[in-house]
Amino acid sequence: MNLQHQPFLVTGAASGLGAATAMALAQHGARVALLDRHAEALGRVATGCPTSTCTAVADITDARQVQQAIEQAVDHLGGLRGVVHCAGVAHAARIYGRQGPMPLEQFRQVVEVNLVGTFNLMRLTVPAMAQMEPLEDGERGVIVNTASCAAFEGQIGQVAYAASKAGVVGMTLPAARELARFGIRVVTIAPGTFETPMMENMPQQVRESLLQQIPFPPRFGQPEEFAQLALHVITNRMLNGCTLRLDGALRMGPK
Ligand SMILES: NC(=O)c1ccc[n+]([C@@H]2O[C@H](COP(=O)([O-])OP(=O)(O)OC[C@H]3O[C@@H](n4cnc5c(N)ncnc54)[C@H](O)[C@@H]3O)[C@@H](O)[C@H]2O)c1
Known about the structure:
By secondary structure, this protein is of the alpha/beta class. It has a single domain (7-246), classed as NAD(P)-binding Rossmann-like Domain (Rossmann fold), CATH 3.40.50. It is 45% helix and 16% strand. The protein contains 9 helices and 9 strands. A hairpin with a 2-residue loop joins strand 5 (96-97) and strand 6. Helix 3 runs parallel beside helix 4 (104-130) and helix 4 runs parallel beside helix 6. The protein binds nicotinamide-adenine-dinucleotide (NAD). Nicotinamide-adenine-dinucleotide binds next to helix 1, helix 4 and helix 7.
């Protein structure tokens, strides 16, 4: 798919990987709608975009808010060709820590945002993409979801986060199989460790330990490197139904 003038929605667009992807899409001539729950930061990213964008403040777990945001984006952009879904939360807690068992609500909350939120985005964006005119090979749209290497090697304290991201990986193939009849692809990116506010908020000890575990290049990824892969996924039609690791060969240890 050629990105020029194509309409895209990016979630988590107020920060980190989503902001970098929105910027890269706009730089490549796509028309972009930015969605996040943080209005102020979202406005700042939109102002920095080289082409005109629309913004929607919505919580990805809220069916009504997301429906409204998509309607607004489709109206503004004249359709929807794809989604890069980056909104997500990290949470560290042990199943049984010093304070006792992990509160069930914490587990639910992480799964609600990272897994249920991803499904909510997919189910509500597919109808808009399915109505688009088919491009080459009958392609109508593409969904790029974001998991994490924790889906495969969750560390101690990452039970909720790893479960939520493994769910995103698990949805990828059945979603791609089901949506093939509309010409919509589904691909998941599983990042290792990237220099974003999410990573910056982790304790220094955790950051240093993770850094030491990355074989090459021995550094955290830059958000622009995630955006580069997201754009490649969008433009390469043969990528479908798979999860791509982007991690410098990182295989996270127990801690
Ligand atoms: N940074 C990393 O090292 C890394 C590694 C693996 C996976 N990931 C995943 O990549 C994605 C992006 O992470 P990031 O590092 O850019 O984080 P970030 O914290 O910089 O950005 C996440 C954005 O998502 C938004 N968001 C969170 N919950 C939301 C909700 N319910 N509704 C709407 N917006 C919401 C936040 O407001 C924020 O702007 C996340 O899914 C994260 O789990 C990040």
